[in-house]
């Protein structure tokens, strides 16, 4: 079957499309929603200053099944994931696969981290090439190229950043408890264009956040996007769910797990990632990034 491309066009990281902030959209919110958004924005501002860059290990299981067909294709990847905060674009992620189904695909030399630890004329371009090289190990729906540009545990948080909040309509949908922590459930739907995540039909993102009201910490996120495929009468339904937990070593709340799914035609692509061994970097004003043991 001829491959058809889902135009989740990537920029800057080949994992995540990022576009500059544009004119704000109108949103109707109550005072309690405004207060929660202000608390979250302050929390994320501090988070970016505290963790301008981190690198961790990702254990990532992917599965593909097709309705009416027996069997499930599966693959297990282990990767180094580098996440860098950017004032304009939010968090940019790079993934470097070093093991596939228990077999090494190269020597594990932490080459992503080394790019940002040592002078390099084109560190961003080289990181993009590493990410593109790693993407070839992703499983895909038969006959489609889904692109997989949103499989980044930080992508949903970009909608909560102070610079981007007016792009979406928010409302508090209720209360919940996450791992014994009281949380407010905050729903959102993107309003402004161009979208933060590009698609052929400029579909808006929507979803939910579970937020600790006092601190503004995000405990869980649930991001959805329903988009057409360019040139096809086909819809791709994308969902990315992330849980965050306190990392005792770094003293920060970091991604603990990510669950993703893509439904297109009769195919279902699923992913389940777990994160560990995070290390902190410090971004200097010169844009050099140095490692903290």
Query: H/E series, N to C?
Result: EHEEEEHHEEEEEEEEE
Number of strands: 14
Q: What's the helical proportion of residues?
A: 10-25%
Supply the CATH architecture: Clam
Largest sheet: 12 strands, antiparallel
Low-confidence parts, pLDDT < 50 over ≥5 residues? 1-30, 283-293
Helix tally equals: 3
Under CATH at level 1, the class stands as Mainly Beta
What are the salient characteristics of this protein?
293 residues; mainly beta; globular; disordered N terminus; disordered C terminus
Structure notes:
This protein is mainly β. The protein has one domain (4-19, 30-291): Clam (outer membrane lipoprotein receptor (LolB), chain A). It is 14% helix and 44% strand. The chain contains 3 helices and 14 strands. The chain has helices at residues 31-50, 111-117, 123-135; strands at residues 4-5, 53-66, 73-86, 90-100, 103-104, 144-145, 168-178, 181-190, 206-211, 218-228, 235-247, 252-264, 267-283, 289-291.
Write the layout of secondary structure elements.
Blueprint: E1 4-5, H1 31-50, E2 53-66, E3 73-86, E4 90-100, E5 103-104, H2 111-117, H3 123-135, E6 144-145, E7 168-178, E8 181-190, E9 206-211, E10 218-228, E11 235-247, E12 252-264, E13 267-283, E14 289-291
Brief summary of the model shown:
With 293 residues, this protein is mainly beta. The chain contains three helices and 14 strands.
